[in-house]
Design a protein that fits this description.
Layout lengths: L1 E5 L9 H8 L5 H9 L3 E3 L2 E2 L11 E5 L8 H7 L4 E5 L3 E6 L16 H9 L23 E7 L2 H12 L4 E9 L6 E5 L2 E3 L7 E3 L7 E10 L2 E8 L6 H8 L8 H4 L13 E9 L6 E5 L7 H8 L2
Parallel strand pairs: 7-14
Antiparallel strand pairs: 1-4, 2-3, 2-4, 5-6, 6-7, 8-13, 8-14, 9-12, 10-11, 12-13, 14-15
Helix pairs in contact: 1-2
Length: about 300
Amino acid sequence: MLHEFRVEEKAAGQRIDRFLAEVFLDKSRSFWQKLISQNSVLINDSPVKSSYIVETNDLIRVEYFEVDVVGEAEIEKKAPPLNVIYEDQDVAVVEKEAGLVTHSAPGHSSGTLAEAVQNYFGDNLSDLGDSRRRGIVHRLDKDTSGLLLIAKNNNAHKELAKAFKKHDVLREYQAIVLGTPETDSGLIDAPLGRDPKERKRMSVQPEGKYARTYFEVLGSNNGLSHLLLRLETGRTHQIRVHLAMINCPILNDEKYGGKRVRVLDEDDLLLHASKLAFTHPVSGEELSFSSDLPRRFDFFLEEIYRK
């Protein structure tokens, strides 16, 4: 289906996704965002982002086939349920289940947390960057569960991004690991980068990015330890690589611990983002949220704390 027309003066000044949703009343804004991300909407013969502001006399060319586009109904069908811990007009805190990809990536184009967030909050999300990641300020690995912070407008997103960059957001995790650290608490300070031999893995690299993880042993028994971890930085796979480096790999993290740490049939890690604390980007209020450990931890906690 092909549509081609020019923008009238009275319609200028709007975002392209909003403009198209008003022109085509039978199609939602999320429908157009998806189509724009596929480069099926051209402005003056060039692809644009959803945030493009239309101008008078812009030539808009839209071409699509219904079967090629995931509309709102299909997004809702594919999007997993969303567990919202807190929300106001600027931010939200949600809880991600293990096994759920935070946002689309090669091999995971649908059924993501980002889709669930968009399905739940609709237009009330920041739209900085990739339209498939609206509102997503940071991420958790697919097989890690726990708390994530969502930005509901661009101002909140910018301020939260600054806070993460300055290490002003408290992120605590809990993990069950094989073995016990040599000290009851400490700092793992080791730069990380892509493993030169296996690009899907991260490893300690002298020229890698600065990375620091604090740990505290909460309990230890039967060759296992329950750790509290606090991130100063948030590099890809940071906790997983750092703990493997001190010979305490996370249970079920076969990528970094090998087959000896495989304890579950599924791929879920014994790693959970259990606490998130930050300064509200608009009100300045100090906020703190906690999440209980999932049931997959129960058996191993019993082993560690058995008297």
